[in-house]
From TrEMBL:
Keywords, alphabetical: Repeat, TPR repeat
Stored InterPro entries: TPR-like_helical_dom_sf (IPR011990), TPR_2 (IPR013105), TPR_rpt (IPR019734), Ycf3 (IPR050498)
Protein name: Tetratricopeptide repeat protein
Pfam families, sorted: TPR_11, TPR_2
PROSITE patterns hit by this protein: TPR, TPR_REGION
TPR repeat residue numbers: 91-124, 125-158, 159-192, 193-226, 227-260, 261-294, 329-362
Organism: Bacteroides intestinalis
CC per GO annotation: cell outer membrane
One annotated GO biological process: receptor-mediated virion attachment to host cell
Length: 407
C-alpha cells in the first residue's frame, strides 16, 4: 500500500501592508548642515544659544513636507489646532530637534527631546503625537496609545491620532477598539482611504468579512489604485466563497503592482480551489520568480503539479525549494512521497533520510522512510523507523508495527 502526504498548508496573509516612506523635501539645503551642527553641539554650549541657533536655522526654511504612511500616519502639523507654537519658540525647537534625531535613527534621543517640549507645554498635542509614533516604532504599543490618547484629549479633531491609536490597538489585539478609532478618523476625514482599509482589516480579524469587504470597497472608491485594498478584499471574498470575485480582485492588484508576489500566490491558491491547477501553476511560478525563498509557494506548486500528473516537475520543484529555502520538514516529506509514488524507493529513502538529519524529531519522516525501506527489502530498517516514528507520536506507524512481529 502506498502511503504518503500532500502538504497543502497555505500561509495566506490577511494583514495590511504596513509600509510607507517619509519623503522630506528640504527647501533650503543649509538646513541639514545647520541642524547637524545643533545635534552634534558641544555639551558645554549654552542651551539657549543652541535653541536660538535652531530657531534661526528653521526660520529660514520651509517646514518638512511629510507624506502620510499607512503604518503610522503623517507627521504633518495640520491638525495642531491647539497650543500651536511659532518657529522661534523653545517648545517648537525641541519638537524639531526630536524630529531630526528620529530621522537620523536616534529614537531614544527623539523621545527625550519630545519630553522636553511637553515639559514646557503639557498641552502640546503634536509633541504627544510624535512621541507616540516613536514609541510605536519601538514596539511600546501601550505607551504609544497613551500618548495618542493625550493628543486626542487636547485636540478631539486630531484624525491622525485616532488613526495611529487604532493601528497600535490592533497590534495588541484590541481589534474592536481599533475599529472605533478608525471610525472616528473617518468621521473627521471621510476621504481617508487608509482608515477604511485598516478598519476593514480589523473587521476581518473579528470575523466580519462582509463588513471588511464593504470598507475595502470604499477605500478603492476613494483610491482606485489601492492595490492592498484589492488584495485584502480578494482574500475576504475567497473566505465567503466568492472565488471568482477574489480572483478578479487579485488580478486588479497585480495590474496595479505587477510585482505583488502575495497577490500572485493567493490568486494561485484560489485558482487551485476551483480546480484550475494550470492557472495556479502559472501564478506559483511567478511568485518564485519574484521571491525565490517563498517556501509555501513551492509546496503548493508541487501539489498542483501532482494534480496535473507532472510528477517529475513536482520532484524538481521540491529539490529546488530545498536548495533555495530554509530547511522545512514538509519539503523533504513531499519529495520522499513523490519519489515513492514513482516507485523510486531507494531515492525516496534517501530523501526522507536527508530530512531526518535536519529534523530528527519529525515522526512522519521516519514513517515515510520506513515505507520506502520496506519496499526496498530492508525490513529491519523499516521496523526501526516505524518504532522511532511511533515513539515520536506518529499514529500511522502503530498500525504497521504488527508487520515487525509485534502485537
Amino acid at each position: 500500500m502506498v502511503v504518503g502526504w500532500h502538504v497543502t498548508s497555505r500561509a495566506i496573509r490577511t494583514g495590511l501592508v504596513r509600509t510607507g516612506t517619509e519623503v522630506v523635501n528640504w527647501d533650503v539645503c543649509r538646513l541639514m548642515r545647520c541642524c547637524h551642527c545643533v545635534i552634534n553641539r558641544n555639551k558645554f554650549m549654552d542651551k539657549w544659544v543652541v535653541c536660538i541657533l535652531l530657531a534661526v536655522c528653521l526660520s529660514g526654511c520651509r517646514q518638512a513636507n511629510v507624506n502620510k504612511q499607512i503604518k503610522q500616519g503623517t507627521d504633518s502639523l495640520q491638525n495642531e489646532t491647539v497650543a500651536s507654537h511659532p518657529v522661534d519658540s523653545l517648545a517648537y525647537a525641541y519638537l524639531e530637534s526630536g524630529r531630526i534625531m528620529y530621522e537620523n535613527g536616534d529614537k531614544l534621543g527623539a523621545i527625550a527631546e519630545y519630553n522636553k517640549a511637553i515639559e514646557i507645554d503639557s498641552n502640546y498635542a503634536v509633541a504627544y503625537y510624535k512621541r507616540g509614533k516613536v514609541s510605536s516604532d519601538l514596539k511600546d504599543y501601550k505607551g504609544a496609545i497613551a500618548d495618542y490618547t493625550k493628543a486626542i484629549k487636547i485636540n478631539p479633531e486630531y484624525a491622525n491620532a485616532y488613526y495611529n491609536r487604532g493601528w497600535n490597538k490592533s497590534n495588541i489585539g484590541d481589534n474592536t477598539d481599533a475599529i472605533d478609532d478608525y471610525t472616528k478618523a473617518i468621521n473627521i476625514n471621510p476621504k481617508d482611504a487608509e482608515s477604511y482599509h485598516n478598519r476593514g482589516w480589523n473587521k476581518s480579524k473579528i470575523g466580519d468579512k462582509k463588513g471588511a469587504i464593504k470598507d475595502y470597497t470604499e477605500a478603492i472608491r476613494i483610491n482606485p489604485k489601492y492595490a492592498d485594498a484589492y488584495y485584502n478584499r480578494g482574500w475576504n471574498k475567497s473566505k465567503i466563497g466568492d472565488k471568482k470575485g477574489a480572483i478578479k480582485d487579485y488580478t486588479e492588484a497585480i495590474r496595479i503592482n505587477p510585482k505583488y508576489a502575495n497577490a500572485y500566490y493567493n490568486r494561485g491558491n484560489t485558482k487551485s480551489d476551483i480546480g484550475d491547477n494550470t492557472g495556479a501553476i502559472n501564478d506559483y511560478n511567478k511568485v518564485i520568480e519574484l521571491n525565490p525563498q517563498h517556501i509555501d509557494t513551492y509546496i503548493n506548486l508541487g501539489v498542483a503539479q501532482y494534480e496535473t500528473r507532472d510528477y517529475e516537475g513536482e520532484i524538481a520543484t521540491y529539490r529546488l525549494a530545498i536548495k533555495n529555502c530554509s530547511p522545512d520538514a514538509d519539503l523533504y516529506n513531499n519529495l520522499g512521497r513523490a519519489l515513492y509514488d514513482l516507485k523510486r524507493f531507494k531515492e525516496a529513502a534517501e530523501a526522507y533520510g536527508e530530512g531526518i538529519k535536519a529534523f530528527p524529531s519529525d515522526g512522519k519522516l521516519y514513517y515515510g522512510r520506513g515505507l520506502a525501506r520496506n519496499q526496498s527489502g530492508d525490513k529491519n530498517g523499516a521496523c526501526e523507523d516505524w518504532h522511532r516514528s511511533s515513539e515520536l507520536g506518529c499514529l500511522q506507524a502503530n498500525a504497521l508495527l504488527p508487520l515487525c512481529g509485534e502485537k
